[in-house]
UniProtKB/TrEMBL annotation:
Any one cellular-component term (Gene Ontology): nucleus
Organism encoding this protein: Chanos chanos (Milkfish)
Residues in Centromere/kinetochore protein zw10 N-terminal domain copies: 27-85
Domain ZW10 C-terminal helical: residue ranges: 573-727
Protein name: Centromere/kinetochore protein zw10 homolog
Amino acid sequence: MTSFVTEVLASSGKLEKDDLASKISKLSRKVEETKEEVFDMLNKKYSDFLPSMQAAEELMDQVETVSKDIDLLKSCIENEFDTAIGEYQKALQEQKYVVAAEQYIKARNSVDALKAWRSADIPLFQALGSELTIQRENLTYHLGEEWQNQAVWKLPPSKELTSMESFLTTELHLNTGASPEREEGTHPLLASVLQALAIQGELHKKIKLFGQVLLRYMLRPLIVYPCVLVEVRDVPEQGSVISLQYKESQTEHSAPAQVYAKVLTVLKALHTHLFDVSVGEKKVSAILGDLIWEEMCDCIIQECLLYSIPSSSSQLPEYGTVIKETEDFERSLREMCYLSGDSDLLKYAKNVSCHFANKKCQDVIVAARKLMTSEMHNTVKITPDYKLSMPKLPILGGGDGKRGSQSEKPSLQQEKQLGERTLCLPACRISESVQQLMELALRTLSEAVGSSNKCAVQLFYTVRNIFHLFYDVVPTYHRENLLRFPHLAAIQHNNCMFLAHHLLTLGHQFRPHLPLTDGVCYFVDLVPGFRKLGAQCFVAQMNVQKAEMLERLSTARNFSNLDDEENYSAASKAVRQVIHQLKRLGKVWQDVLPVNIYCKAMGTLLNTAITELITKIMMLEDISSKDGEHLHTLCQTIIEEGPLVFTPFPEESKNRKYQEEVPVYVKKWMTFKELSIALKASLQEIVDRWAEGKGPLALEFSSTEMKSLIRALFQNTDRRAVALTKIK
């Protein structure tokens, strides 16, 4: 019977009919013949065959080397390699995979030893290497088939993984079956397969792929979806089936205890039927745990524990239950060897105070930004009696010597005291969202009062960040509307003043209750910025309105040659449009701006209009009597209609006071009235109203301006010359 190596060489084309023994015999005979030839050569004369003697010596050395190689190859091949391969094939047929893997390693080691001893490229080595590769792939194939038969996945198509329902078709069939050798634990055949895979160096790859599928199709859906449950069903004589089931749930995120229970159900089933096997000094379950724990831990934290963090500091003591559940969960995993060493999961749960502060700060910033980007036109009325709803703060005692006692009220020695409404915010309208923003800041500060020092500091600076965010977000997000709609510009002005007003005292109210070091600036440093922000917004809108008025007045054709019907019509139309614009603004800002701001704004705009009109008229070099009458009519229109734009209140009776005080808010009002009178007055009446520089006309115009107006109104006569001499 020929040896296995002979079969290998024959299959590779190296031997055809002669077996290895006959080949070795031929080589031996060749060596003997060579020896005889050498001895014959030595019998010849030394002088004749000196070169031949040197060649013979070299040939003898080669013959000895070849002889040693042949003996070694014959010994190794017939003993170690042949035996190992034979045992390997026998074990593979009997499904003794551990023995097969070990014998394969033994055969490979024998060939490696030969290669290390003999570095020459012998055709026999190539044939043995090819055979080893074939047998390795054969063993790997058998092990892979056995592994796939033990754990069979039923998975949904990847294209359908778009919703929770698609995962409900996931099943894992554990076909471990029953065995007379198996009292408890993993099936002996499976154990053999896993151990053989470990010897082959393929176990890590198999477990890694299994873990990726397990995470994606089973563990992650169980963690993410509260309505997805797990069921483990035993199948007689076959094994178990792990499947996902649906149960309606009203919660958006699973509770930690629910997630832990579902994950443990899956991992316990896997441990019982698959992974309770030792490979070397390590359990297979430990290998799986090392591969999936980090990703599974992150998933539990992000999809479960993150949402279990309390939203109020009063709920923090109750979180101890979650910490205990996490400890029990990890203890169970360690008992099954899925987990070893420290875990980020328990660290995260125990660090709940820090996570609470982070979550609270994030929620506060998100809520604040949502308020800042909401509609501004939904407003609430603020009166001088308005007070923010302050949370109830703890009463501090005076025994600590640091913050003093709030119960001690200093007595005022002065008999006169400030009024109740001193420093109160004037009546106006603010955005409802800004009122809610201020209430959010108060609630957050009250949370800080009841929290740990670190959390309190973090919440305090989050409140400061709210106001910094308002300063940056609102003017940018609402920029176009603030310029387009005067109503919104007025509201934004009020919003800023409202925030600045409360920031003045906000720090004083909470300072005794917050663990901040001395010298920390609370909120008062933000006040000038908010006042400036509100003023800039309103001034920008005022400039828009001024530009519109001046644009309308520019169509009046410089108010010249009004005896021409078209010119007069254009001038009259421009004046009416300005009056209409002012009345519209008066209605838009009515009951929105504080009365003093309202009157100043309307007065400034009206003053802009009449200043432009005065300038245009005073520039005219020739005003005919008819032109003068038309100009007087236009001026009278403004004088009569102008005060009516002051309507800060919806009730007309309340507006009369402010309509009578127009000269207070319109700087050029009296100048405009005097100009209107002068446009229709006679030369003598103008001289009389000048009254040698002491009359009402002299109070509004300079002598140069008055002389220029007289020259434009009257022809060059002796009477005009006399009048001009009196204007000085």
